[in-house]
Amino acid sequence: MAINSGPPPYPGEVLVQPVAGDEVGFFTDSSICIGCKACEVACKEWNNVPVDDIRYLNSSYDNTGELSANSWRHVSFIEQKRDDGVAWLMNSDVCKHCKHAACLDVCPTGAIFRTEFDTVVVQADVCNGCGYCIPACPFGVLTRREGIVDQPAETHVAQKCTMCYDRLKGGDEPACAQACPTKSIQFGPLPALRERAQRRLDVLHQEGVEAARLYLADESDNEVGGAGAFFLLLDEPAKYRYPERPITPTRRLRGMWLAAAAAAAVVLAGVGAAAASGRR
Amino acid sequence: MTAQTTAEPGYYGRPVLKEPVWKPEVAVYFWLGGLAGISAVLGFTARLSGNDRLARRAWFIAFGALLPCPPLLIADLGRPERFYNMLRVLKPTSPMSMGTWVLTGFGGVTAVAAAGELLGGVFATLGRVAEGAAALLGLPLATYTAVLLADTSVPVWHHARHHLPFVFAGSATASAGAAAAILTPSQHSRPARLAATFGALLELGASFAMERRLGPDARHYHEGAAAGPAQAARALTGAGAALMTLGGRRPLAIAAGVLLLAGSLAERFAVLRAGPSSARATADGGTVRG
Fold this sequence. Notes:
The complex is a heterodimer. By secondary structure, chain A is α+β, with helices and mostly antiparallel strands.
């Protein structure tokens, strides 16, 4: 499936085409994001994602706010006052498609599943809107889609980025990556993307951009087992509404059940002793 | 107007986590599920010790508390008409899936146990067999709800993951003992009163330990939407436990029982409401410790 199109993202780089069975993902290089929001628009159009409340948020050029059921890409605008004026940091956020995905683990209906591309997708027609995935996600990606009348089958159910599951199946790259005019959003096989990201980081460091760093490129800064979407950032993760060290709560489930078993044993012993002592 | 970025933490003060959306129905379900589950344990152990009067009431309480549970859970769903999708999979990684099956199984055997109690004869024999199974399922029914909350990224729940099951188990035991003490003549209700006091002490002790473990995050139990119920839970449970130890006179047991039942319900509201407060407080990126 040859699906990467256009020129390579940086001079000297070549496009790497995924083959069937590859784990694919996004590398979002915020250092070349121009904040055009073509990704937000392309995603909305391709996936028929409805409009959200239109509000003035007083957060620079960002009136999308954050990822939600109705915003599967979100461009952050971080204004920084500097000696020579105001600088913007811009970054296109998206579902991280965690390798250990808490949303998928806790989903009680099987609506959330892992695809053959190693991505995480919600089946809107299976989800019954229990809401468990919403607080499970360590990145706050998921919400329930509310108040949309023209797609009744998808209201009140959890929704998020599918990495354009239909396009991947059809041999196309995700709509956001294809629409990105600066190749800030790069799609491809994850191992090749990670190597490219490291080369890009080295270049930026050589050019004196000391603050540049990779986020979620490997497992060193997270417990989500690696991510299907990782980033090159120009400031601390928290500035981008990212957790400093995201966890997958569900990886500790065994300990929780053991605690519950211990609590149950204590109660059984207590109630049993009460019954025995009350014998008459 | 210039957008301001310096005064607020993180990205314009936006929380990293999304708030849990569970409605008050869920707190009521946690309470009733715990009451039903430990009532089954009380019914089973009372039967073993030969206290049939107490056992009979405990089984009626277990069944009565169970009945509203499925409707409460279904009402909380975004798409209630698709509730049956929960019954199409059994998923060990999802406490909600496991809980759904525990509740389903518990409902079946508890109905048989209650029917045996009510109808006698051949049903009584069947009921005795079902009682063992119901008691066995009652324990996870009363505690899985704590695991369900702990298994999220919400700091006030996840950091308390080893304490919450004890809080819920204690609270459930207090409520089950209290309900049985209210309905049982005092000469037969001593085990229920003892269980109620034991559960209340476990609940209070585990809550205290949980707040110590939570450190700064414990503030979500002292301010915001959870503060009221948390305060009420402590006061009601403490008073109920003290009153319950004063002896077997029926009016006293009824008053103590009512206090403990209310305290148990308040405890579930406190824990459920602490979640959204905690999620809202994650703007600085330091969501969850390891």
